[in-house]
Design a protein that fits this description.
By secondary structure, this protein is mainly alpha-helical. 73% of the residues lie in helices and 0% in strands. The chain has one domain: MetI-like fold.
């Protein structure tokens, strides 16, 4: 048997000490996840008698997810928001921007990158305020464009809430996809692309048949992260619309918040969170499989 390195034997204590924060984090995650799963089988409430003398109710909360209004509607809003905001918006726009910026240098590229990064770096509350100030009745769009043309002021946010929230999140989150795809495209050898061009491949063919297959793991990685972030996203949407008007922008995270702390049904809110974890986990498994190289 191979002997342990003397250096490793002498460094066991420092290595263990360095691992303690990670171990503590893992234990905390398991602990709180366990409590969420446990409470999802109870009638625990925020106030009242059930906040103290809660009872086990089995799968009643999970049955309620599919038999009462609210969850399925919020799930559909979340799917639409995630698909158009993350998968179509951030991913496609981030790739297109990264591909186009490869040929641009100097101030032009710097200006675009600063504009893209600005949305990512701004706090969610500030971003929500900017979009509120832009799309409201007295906002930027009406003041500079709509009213000067002789049209009555139009409340873009109230009339097109989900579309505005999707656009706002694309603006805020595209920087991640742009940075990842920029690094991926820079790793492709120019000789490969030049060989494809010499063989007669058009620009679109080079992208579809050469570039995309090479950066396939990066695409899957990008999809994995932005799907998780967007599917569970809360602050920008809540600050901008609060889930309204009505339930037009009530994604699952906001629906869970309303049920847990607005209505006070903590057990039901825990069941919603468990359902979200299961859905995101299934999507994560799908994307992780895409990271494997095809045989």
């Amino acid at each position: 048997m191979a002997q342990t390195s003397p250096w490793l034997r002498s460094a066991r204590v420092p290595m263990l000490a360095a691992m303690l924060p990670a171990i503590a984090l893992i234990v905390a995650l398991i602990y709180f996840t366990g409590w969420a799963v446990t409470y999802s089988f109870t009638n625990l409430e925020l106030t009242g008698l059930n906040s103290i003398n809660w009872k086990w109710i089995g799968f009643d909360n999970y049955v309620r997810l599919f038999t009462r209004n609210g969850f399925l509607g919020s799930l559909w809003v979340t799917v639409v928001f995630t698909f158009f905001s993350a998968l179509v918006g951030q991913s496609v726009f981030g790739f297109a921007l990264a591909a186009s910026m490869r040929r641009i240098q100097g101030w032009g590229r710097t200006t675009v990158e600063v504009a893209v990064m600005l949305g990512w770096l701004l706090p969610d509350i500030v971003a929500a305020f900017l979009w509120q100030a832009t799309t409201s009745t007295n906002g930027f769009l009406n003041t500079l464009f709509v009213e000067p043309l002789g049209f009555p002021a139009y409340n873009f946010l109230a009339s097109n809430a989900l579309a505005i929230v999707i656009i706002a999140n694309i603006w805020k989150g595209t920087a991640w996809s742009y940075l990842l795809f920029s690094a991926a495209l820079d790793s492709i050898s120019r000789e490969i692309l030049e060989a494809a061009r010499v063989d007669g491949a058009t620009g679109l063919q080079r992208i579809w048949l050469v570039t995309l297959p090479i950066i396939r793991p990066h695409i899957a990685t990008n999809m994995l992260f932005i799907t998780i972030w967007t599917f569970t996203y809360f602050p920008l949407i809540y600050a901008l619309t609060g889930g309204g008007p009505g339930s037009a922008t009530e994604v699952l995270s906001i629906f869970m918040y309303h049920q847990s702390f607005g209505v006070g049904k903590l057990g039901y809110g825990a069941a919603i969170s468990v359902a979200m974890v299961i859905i995101v986990g299934a999507l994560s498994v799908f994307y992780l499989r895409q990271l494997k190289e095809p045989k």
